[in-house]
Amino acid sequence: MSNRLAVFAVVVAGLSLYTVYPSDQRSFLTSLSTLLLGFLIGLIVAETPLASPIQELCGLTSRHPDKVGLDIIHASQEHEGKTAKKQLDQRVMYGLQHAFLNLEVTGWWFNMGLWDRERVPTMRFQDACRALVEKVTSHLDITSSSHILDVGFGCGDQDVYMAQLHKPARITGITIEPIQHHAAQDLVKRTPTPGTDIHLYVADASKLPQFLESTPDLFTPSTDRLFSHVVSIDSAYHYNTRAAFLKNAAQVLQPNTGRLALADMILAKPPPTSGLGLSIFKTVFNAMEVPYVNMTMMDQYRQDLEDAGFIDIEIECIEDNVFSGLANHIENQTSRFGGMVGPGVKWTYLALAKGLWWLDRSKWLHFVVVRARNGPRPSSS
């Protein structure tokens, strides 16, 4: 018997006695819950078949590096993987620790992507993300003198790609997440973008005019303090509120010629009207950090754009090439990498995949690409 198994036995035995001889004030349910707690504690510290996943879930252990590689084998060769795990106690020189050397990070992309339905099983996530950026920013008349404001730039990959694709004079990006700003700054420093200056800031999408006022070096002295383009890819539905963001975007865009481009989500069906159904609906969106007020249908969405001052509005629904493609990719990644990610991350993404499959089947949401032109400045009279 191993030392940990002995500890397990002692803990369970001690708490069993505590349960068998309860005091007069102690209820049966309290005693039973104490026994179960003791059993759980014993599992955490013991070398039992259930110990490893419980330890990982509680964050009390790190995976043996060989187990990481073996989990990859296990995903495709179940019997061989299990057999190999039983042999971990044998002395090894390298095992599968070299799995680390084969990992390749090609970016920190994070949008839902535009997926080619015929190539989904083999399509790379980064390629789908680039395809969405290209879809949103094409036909915007971006030139070598353009100054783009990218609202919600993620980790900067899309700004580097836009610079390489369109070669504007300048891209200014804002995000509300400091950790993503840090990662993006690092990417921009080590990635050449000839002809395009990229400058990234931590700022609030709902306060664009204030951002311009507080950042005097955004523009060169010879230009007006307005952008030629405002872009927001797969993030505007998070803004509190999106309608306010649209009005602010119009304020910081050049009148008549300034262009807006979004990848966004709206409702495809009316929300539930019953009290319980509506409560569940609001709870789901709150959990996704999406203000419920942003979940409007097509007519209201177009009205919000018009109320903000935009004209020549184009709205294209592309959800058939978004939700199912990302769901398929998440499931493939989970199978491919097995235990290389923690249980919390794994379960989060598996739940996301299930939700995306449901969205694909139920047709509750539209994923849209929006292009619009800023109208003339309202008269001051």
TrEMBL record:
Keywords from the named record: Methyltransferase, Transferase
Pfam families xrefs: Methyltransf_25
SUPFAM superfamilies: S-adenosyl-L-methionine-dependent methyltransferases
Pathway membership, UniProt: Lipid metabolism; Phospholipid metabolism; phosphatidylcholine biosynthesis
Signal peptide: none
Enzyme class: transferase
The EC number(s) this enzyme carries: 2.1.1.103
Name of the molecule in the record: phosphoethanolamine N-methyltransferase
Taxonomic source organism: Linnemannia gamsii
